[in-house]
Amino acid sequence: MQLVSLVDALTRTGAASTPRKPAPAPRVLAWLPFMLFSGCVIALGVTAYGISTLNTAAATLGGVTLGAMLSLLGASIFYWTGTSHGSWSKNPFGEPVDPPQVIPPFESLDREPTTLDTDDPDDRDLPPGIGRSTPDGTQFQRRDIPYDGRYAPVRYNCFGAHWPAKHSHLFGATGYGKLRDGNRITRFPHAINGIAATISLLRRLYAGKSFREAGSIWTTGQPGTSMRGKPGWDRAGILTAAMIDEGTPEFFDFLEGLGRNEAGAQYNISRDYLRMGWEMFKAGSADAYLDGFDAAGADDAVTGEDLLELARTYIGGRYVLGARVPKDHPDYPKDGGMDCAEFVSYLIARLTGRLYGCTNNNAPMRVADAYTGSFWRDVHELGVAISVQEAAATPGAFLLRRPGRSGIGHIALSDGKGGTLEAKSTRAGIVADKIGGRHWDIGGLVPWIAYDGHEPIDVSAPATIYAIGQPNMRKAKVEEIQRALQQAGYSPGDVDGGFGPKTEAAVMKFQTARGLVIDGEVGPETAGELGVTLP
Asked: Structure pTM?
């Protein structure tokens, strides 16, 4: 638990906030009488021991000196653990907050935590001041805000009072402030930006913890401490990823409790603001949220079917592994060449004007590089992960094979009927294919695209895939694959029945030469080309 707490604290903890209540006197003063008494007792004990054993004045003087030193050391330890320098607890030597400046609330706090109704024009009015995404690294630049009587979380619009984090810039972080106690707190242009960043950190670091544990670790850096929540909330309930992704009432109750713990009496966030921050989190970035805000409920919103319609115009197109497609090209030619990741990313960018699945989603569209590993990252951090069966029944959803040691995976669009549209291989080109009988790890949705899902389709996967790290591989079958590779002119090293890097490299060379999907795995298609029958 200490290790988890340390990782959480170093990543984002709420320790950067100023105390929620005025602290007129340092906490160490309350302990000083106890420290002096303890020191005296220790001094007397050591002195008595010295007299009984050595019976010298030097022993008496040494005992008194030792007792005084221990007393001073004890007071120092309690001073250290009472501050943010020595622990993750709230710092009693923080910024003065007495008397607090209570600022008017933005809106009433009595609304139910429901998903934003995009068909209601009243719900689509953005408050002024919401900031756009900032360049990566901006969140680590120091930009203090002078103390003005407000608590740091309110002053910095940092709803969760967290340290600058890896993804803070996506939600508009403009730097960080350094408080008087030495802690840092991320700075945002608007409370909605701070809410989105807080939810992102909760999703990545706290899903799976109980409300009590998540709240106490966030607020103090360690489990077991108190956290005030909404009356009647279930402290023992689990903060699940699904709860965060769906924006359930229980999650918003927890979120409100978290904010009240950080900002105390100055808490000024309405449920509408919490919901807007949640929508920014779901969009994946401040830019995506602001760009899609007006279009979210419009009749011309991009759908999964729109992706499929555009994808079908490229059937018969050329496949080129490693090709770089300018995502801002208005009509990229079929014979221009693209690989699987570039194909899907280009379709998304062409229809929505936003990057997804690129190594840097903030790069200029003309040079952005799409990669299956980046799709894997984005489906967990920006988008929505679904099962392969759900993706098979959702037009425009994508199916993803995570890159292995080879660094190459595969991605395809689902037609919603168990089939695919994909840039498959140099032999096949851009084609319509099927989902079943192939290896897929996960399905995914782009958060700013509308999808029409249906009942999951049961698509069969191969019983066994032969690749590095795969289970249930038979040694004799691996030897058969290695011999087939040797006969084809691609040495896998020793024929030893072990599927290692040399065998994988030989498989990839074979796949490249035969125009197959290049992933280093021996599934049904590659096995058929090798003349090997998989069990």
From this structure: 0.48
